[in-house]
Amino acid sequence: MEVTTDKEGSLMATIRLDTSKQLKSIKPLHAGGQPPVTSAAKDTYFHYLTEAGIPYSRLHDVSGSFGGGKYVDIPNIFRDFDADVNDPASYDFTFTDLLIKQLVEAGVEPYYRLGVTIENAARVKAYYAHPPRDYDKWAQICEHIIRHYTEGWADGYHHKIAYWEIWNEPDNGRQMWSGSFENYYRLYDVTAKHLKKCFGDKIKVGGFASCGFYGVAGGNDPFNMKPEHYQRYLDFFHGFMAYVKEQSSPIDFFSWHSYAPTMNTIRMDKWVAEQLDTYGYGHIESHLNEWNPFQEEAGNGHHAAEVASTLLALQNGRADMTCIYDMRIDGPDYSAFFDAKTKLPHQTYYTFVAFNTLYKLGTQVECVSDTDGVFAIAATDGKKNALMLSNISGTNQALSIEGVDLTEARVSYIDDHRMLSWAPNARELKNNSVVLIEW
Fold first, then answer.
1. What's the mean pLDDT in 264-272?
2. For the chain, is the Cβ count within 10 Å smaller at the N or the C terminus?
3. Are 350 and 48 a contacting pair, CB within 8 Å?
4. Nearest to 35 by CA among 25, 20, 49
């Protein structure tokens, strides 16, 4: 790629736009994992989700640290597996009812993971990460949970909840699944067939929330995994796809995870697309529903820029939805949005606010960056326009934006010191920074 410099010899990134060339809808890539519910079950911080336009909250690992044993999980709701599956008294919806009500009031659609929370101390003992004793009964329990939240069963609700995910990371070993590969494949088949028989196209079912495909994306995982782990994930995937194809198991979406840097995640996204096509499932949705590159850096410019780069890259990729892991408020690990001490949103939260500006405008327009590591997406509603840029190229870049008049544009930056703060112009995009331009 040709390297461009400005008059002073600085590296220059050129962005070329044509707002008359409309491409496709901006995708709901700014969804998140568990919401910022407090240990006291309060929605004090949910207004931040509303203000950022978060479209979905994937309900997995919900309040596992402090409210563990109360929310979402099958054993938290159906506490005695020997109880009558058709009796409302067998179900304890109390805390999950409250949580989903809080999400709906915040304008966020729940994305429900049917299964269990990860058991990080499974090396000592795992209590719930086991295959159900009766797959048919487990599927019926899932059915009644869906009926409670979407059809009003058991003094329930008529919420809009489209996505129902069957388990999480069964390829992760004993922390998530003590059974064999085939045990999970069969659980998926039994459950998916039962749920689609009950609800048809009123819901979307999928899985399996793969740990990720680092082995085909150049490695670069933050967990220092061994090659045999990479191979396990690939073997599990290929076994699953072959099984659902052979059994004609319903699947509306395939879900997968990545905690790798942007460029590795882009490779995974492309590989998933190729594999879905190969197996004859090119028509289903692809969900990256756990991701968080350099999560230990959350709250600085680099983390914000990496996250923004992934969002912008996948708008041009295959993924139909992404859910960052996650939006928790209690505890610093994997909290992508909030400072653990102040409970205030930091830089990465504002990348989602910026992306939501594109999402609200609705339609992606032609926008090309000539520089590796500088990502750009523009959107329009026919009257108003916005351009979002991120720089993880490793160097500061002077900016040349062609094809539009930005004389009256509003410019906002995110970096180590700014959180979508106003700036007088967009003449430079420093390394590890994000800019939003609106006109």
1. 99
2. N
3. no
4. 49
Residue 184, pLDDT score: 99
Would you list the DSSP string of 98-152?
HHHHHHHHTT-EEEEEES----TTTTT--SS-S--S-HHHHHHHHHHHHHHHHT-
Query: What pLDDT was estimated at residue 4?
Result: 60
Question: Is it true that the peptide bond before 46 is cis, omega within 30 degrees of 0?
Answer: no
In contact, 393 and 372? CB cutoff 8 Å: yes
Q: Which of 74, 68, 109, 118 is CA-nearest to residue 92?
A: 74
In the predicted model, is pLDDT for residue 336 greater than 90? yes
Distant-in-sequence, close-in-space partners of 141: CB < 8 Å, separation ≥ 6: 74, 77, 78, 85
Query: What distance in Å separates the CA atoms of residue 185 and residue 15, rounded to the nearest whole number?
Result: 46
The confidence score (pLDDT) of residue 2 equals 47
Report the alpha-carbon distance of residue 429 to residue 2 in Å, rounded: 18
pLDDT given at position 10:
72
Beta bridge partners of 113: 165
CATH 3.20.20.80 domain locations along the chain: 28-361
d(CA 95, CA 323): 22
Percent of the chain with pLDDT over 70: 97
> 282-300 pLDDT, tens per residue?
999 999 999 999 999 999 9
Provide the CATH topology of domain 28-361. Answer: TIM Barrel (3.20.20)
For tokens 């505890």, what's the residue?
331
Residues belonging to the chain: 439
The long-range contacts involving 175-181, CB below 8 angstroms and separated by at least 24 positions, are: 175/118, 175/119, 175/120, 175/122, 175/126, 175/129, 176/116, 176/118, 176/119, 176/129, 177/129, 177/130, 177/131, 178/122, 178/126, 178/129, 178/130, 178/131, 179/130, 179/131, 181/235, 181/236, 181/239, 181/240
Task: Write out the DSSP string of 199-239.
Answer: HGGGSEEEEEEE---GGGTT---TT---HHHHHHHHHHHHH
Q: What average pLDDT does range 339-363 have in this prediction?
A: 97
Q: Sign of the C-alpha dihedral, residues 346, 352, 358, 359?
A: negative
pLDDT for 1 beyond 50? no
Measure the CA angle with vertex 114, ends 156 and 194; round to 5°.
80
- Other CB atoms within 10 Å distance of the CB of residue 202: 13
Domain 4-22+364-438 listed as CATH 3.30.70.100: no
